[in-house]
Amino acid sequence: METTEPEANVTRIMLAVNESSIKGYPHASISSRGAFEWTIQKIVRSNTSGFKLLFLHVQAPREDGFEDMDSIYAFPEDFKTMKHRDQTRGLHLLEYFVTRCHEIGVACEAWVKEGDPKEVICRQAKRMRPDLLVVGNRGLGPFQRVIAGTVSEFCVKHAECPVVSIKRSPGETPRDPVDD
Amino acid sequence: METTEPEANVTRIMLAVNESSIKGYPHASISSRGAFEWTIQKIVRSNTSGFKLLFLHVQAPREDGFEDMDSIYAFPEDFKTMKHRDQTRGLHLLEYFVTRCHEIGVACEAWVKEGDPKEVICRQAKRMRPDLLVVGNRGLGPFQRVIAGTVSEFCVKHAECPVVSIKRSPGETPRDPVDD
């Protein structure tokens, strides 16, 4: 099963992930985790050597001007050395996904970029040319969508690669469905 | 490699396919074939036992009232017996995909349904609950889309399962891009 395929031949799936907006829950959002689990269970399955996952987290600009945006994280250890250097926001989120990939045995890379999530995701998809972009989706109704905006709708319309939007399951919806 | 997984555990991918609109070209449309090849090359890959493809072709109602809409085709032979009985429109299209799946070694089923493609596809997706719906897309500009309509946009918005729309590559666009 563990035949290593040359990288040019693997299917590269980009996952746009974000932090939870729920207070006291400083981890990946429910819909990001749902999109990841769908990708592993329904697409990668047991064929771990055939895929590479590219995790992109986009965060709002920092007020203190600190930047550590261009590092690439591919192994759980990469986060340990980083932690002693600086506690960059959003990286515990990527650490979660990179560690999960490491356990499962599927190759991955992870980035943090700064800016407007929907635009940065589309720009990075254009640059990286993944075979598929997977984005989570809170499954909001039309009224809630107007208020909360949806990154997934924008990506489905504007990204230059195939995009699949994975709706959060009703059973996982928090008390305020705009939360995630 | 040929470990047969129980069906409940395979990833079921529904592909909505249609006939080419190009004269003298009575086969699958360019974008349908593109969507199929993407599914095989980028998702199924060598993991043929982990997937089942569900081909759905929706056609306009027949004027002569003839109906053969509820048959299921899963093997190339199914089309041979059908051919001696009746030459239903649209089935050579499904025969193409079922034969390709048979050669590749991935399980499949195929149907023809009658009605408005975008609505029937969403209804069948609701009934069949696939893990992913793949639809081809001519990649038309906004002006052409108004004239030609796009089934894929409707499905992305309204289907209850994850949907990915696969754009036709620019190199495969026929002289009239509304053709497919």
TrEMBL record, chains A, B:
InterPro entries: At3g01520-like_plant, Rossmann-like_a/b/a_fold, Universal_stress_UspA, UspA. It holds the Pfam family Usp. It comes from Gossypium gossypioides. SUPFAM superfamilies: Adenine nucleotide alpha hydrolases-like. This is UspA domain-containing protein. Residues 29-166 form the UspA domain. One of its GO terms (molecular function) is AMP binding. It comes from the Eukaryota. Coiled coil: none annotated.
